[in-house]
Amino acid sequence: MAVQLAPLGRLLPIAGLQLGTAGAGIKHTNRDDVVLIHLTSEQASCAAVFTRNAFCAAPVVLAKQHLASTAARYCLINSGNANAGTGAAGLQAAQATCQAVAELHGGSAEAVLPFSTGVIGQALPVEKIRTALPNAIQALSEDNWTAAAKAIMTTDTQPKGFSRQVEVQGQTLTVTGISKGAGMIRPDMATMLAFIGTDAAVPSELLQRCLAQAMDVSFNRISVDGDTSTNDACVLMASGQGAVQISNEQDPAWTVLCETVTEVCQALAQAIVRDGEGATKFITIAVEGAANREECLAVAYTIAHSPLVKTAFFASDANWGRILAAVGRAGLNNLVLEDVQIDLNEVNIVRQGGVSPEYTEAQGQRVMQETDITIRVQLGRGEVSDQVWTCDLSHEYVSINADYRT
Amino acid sequence: MAVQLAPLGRLLPIAGLQLGTAGAGIKHTNRDDVVLIHLTSEQASCAAVFTRNAFCAAPVVLAKQHLASTAARYCLINSGNANAGTGAAGLQAAQATCQAVAELHGGSAEAVLPFSTGVIGQALPVEKIRTALPNAIQALSEDNWTAAAKAIMTTDTQPKGFSRQVEVQGQTLTVTGISKGAGMIRPDMATMLAFIGTDAAVPSELLQRCLAQAMDVSFNRISVDGDTSTNDACVLMASGQGAVQISNEQDPAWTVLCETVTEVCQALAQAIVRDGEGATKFITIAVEGAANREECLAVAYTIAHSPLVKTAFFASDANWGRILAAVGRAGLNNLVLEDVQIDLNEVNIVRQGGVSPEYTEAQGQRVMQETDITIRVQLGRGEVSDQVWTCDLSHEYVSINADYRT
Prior knowledge:
The structure is a homodimer of 406-residue chains. Chain A contains eleven helices and 15 strands. With 406 residues, chain A is an alpha+beta fold. In chain A, strands 13-12-11-14-10-15 form a six-stranded mixed beta sheet. A five-stranded mixed beta sheet of chain A has the order 3-9-8-7-6, sandwiched between helices. Chain A has a four-stranded mixed beta sheet with strand order 1-2-4-5, with helices on both faces. In chain A, helix 2 (87-105) links the parallel strand 4 (74-81) and strand 5. The radius of gyration of chain A is 22 Å and the shape is globular. The interface between A and B is large, with 65 and 66 residues.
């Protein structure tokens, strides 16, 4: 029951990047739940951003080690089991799956980055994954993004993927990405995974900078402290098999690459919110007139995490008092109530410390019929603005999360 | 559907403190919704703690001003309307109700502390309150705490009140208090009100210190940043009409007073959690082995505010992975996963970074059948411990908060 989430469009293949999926029966037996991604060329580079949670899941620990030690050539992803909170045995299990890829398809285990998403605290079924791997290898193909987008889903109701193709100085640059999420209130508590590929040739240091920039205005704007679940990860792979070659930041193609990757990341991040567990409304919280970025985000996230605001939106109730109360407890020093203005879409609802004189309940009700709603908060303290995306809190959310393990 | 919340017992009268209730029809017509509390003696003193929300409701602004300007003799409380987000008109409305008390019962308007709880952003119906006041005055009686506990309720399902009587050097000291709350996830978003009386004679400066100490281990342990809704307030009144006279902190009765007030405040605060909106479980989060108090509370509140933890408890699912993930994103530097231990009541569930070898799902299921559950988190970093109280997140919570205004 995703909120205006468009069906998956055509996901463009990335030359030099193959994907294969297979069913290992980890949690469900009637679907693919293992994905292998293979960067075929020596020229390829790989960048990644991982969760900031103090308790990284075993695959995150290992993926970081592997990324630091050698050039990554594979991503191995499974859904259905997060391999988190599994201690030393979990690390060995993740290592065993990387080793299996090396044995079955060549290269070293260190060239494999492992990713897991699903239930926390249960042993990873290594044998099931090992058994499924030959099928995933058999299926490796550049035109297999859609199957991969489906195989990484957990509580997602729709697969998520986007492609963008642009021309840079007469050359074609392609970016394709897939993501999964669906944790609603704070994506930092569900596992968010995203895998993005481009056919450009980019040195890994530059690629990492490109990913960091894109994260900051996409996945990190739907989450409280950046990525802080035990398993969150976002990977950007550059196959180097396309026509666009970037060697430094002065390269005209650099800016285009960053913009295109950002665009794909924002689309993937917003898709996660639109498919939030039980979501019925897609809410943009735009904070303007702040003295600095910290203020912006403090206000935006306090609203975004307020269960009272979220349940009011679920009820299509323009309960601006709850929004105002959230602004008030965001921790800003010397906040002046009279300077605060709150709009819902085009309707001004709070001004000078109280309800706007022109506001009518009918206006509020009309706005609340929309599925995409922007809460605009003007603080009147400065020039900085920023935005985050969230969704409402419904009965369905409670049902999904109360039943997840059963 | 409160969680093991005992029915209201006998609330002992406090000599020199009278309460009267009346029905003003503010939100409902079939119940009392106005309370007047009168400190009859010149000897009385009054202390109060208010919300830290930057946007104080009008009655909070006025109560602070009045408390600073003169000796308080009255509390005027209404439920059904919070008089918050109502701008200058709200302040005038609150002022008018104080004035009405002064006109009808003597004294100055400044001697009246106003309190409101209920819907935010609607004009306070001053005339309805003024009309009801003579009935509340008529009803003034020392033995009227129960009626007052009922009249201040909003989404509470049960009235909340406690009395304690102790002997100090052969003299009797009595403390009686009432509270209302019922906001579940963060009490800082609902209005919490508490009114506590004692018959001891206490200088107001000492009384304020006594209240601050009690707050810190009661109401401030069920809330994220102390009191941060727009209307939260806790008032401690000392009538001075009992036998116990306290003049300084060396007085042996001082410690007894502080302990007794603390005991009543904890009972009132825990009652608010037990009557949390939609609550089916009462959860104590005890964090031990922290380096300092900030760490303790960061971990405890991160768990307490996790919708994933709370929905798992609603489902009676011992999903310790969600608890572990919450500990990991609480922001503690250099947290060592292997040092963390998590118990549910007497069952050890996490040890050395993973599930305890002795733990069985059957044990977890057995603990989850209880309605009172303690999550004990041992961090292994130091000697400091602290605890907070919370409840689970149910369908009923969503229903209550999605329907509140309708």
